[in-house]
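Would you mind writing out a protein's amino acid sequence and the numbers that encode its backbone to help me picture the idea?
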Amino acid sequence: MTRIVFLLTVLFSPSIVFATPPAGSTEALLENCKIHLNERLLKDALKINDNTEVALYLIASAKCNSTIVGVVDTLNFYEFLLAGLSSSNLVCTPTNATSKQFAEIFVRYAGAHPEKFHEPATELVLESLSDAFPCKK
């Protein structure tokens, strides 16, 4: 009986079973973007016909892309609204840059700053992009 109680406790205690970073954290976004950038994971899952792994790859890719593209789109809209009012842009992304390039920049930057994993992911995306694409003054 003691074994059953212990087993049930472990199975239904999310803090024990799932040691994933909190949603919205830099650590969680970094994890998802690393998966997204590793296309080999998707190819391997497709090769062995593992639909669960394919789904997990696609979910991680969507989380990475949606967060990073959301930050970039918000910055572009912000710059559009302030055009003419201020000459100090936060980020000057090239018009031909891709979401994959943005993800690579974020992964490299966040990987170099593990002390910032507790910060909101969107803040670190902004930092990484302004570091990579500073506006010329």
Confidence is low (pLDDT under 50) at residues 4-18. The two ends are 71 Å apart (CA to CA).
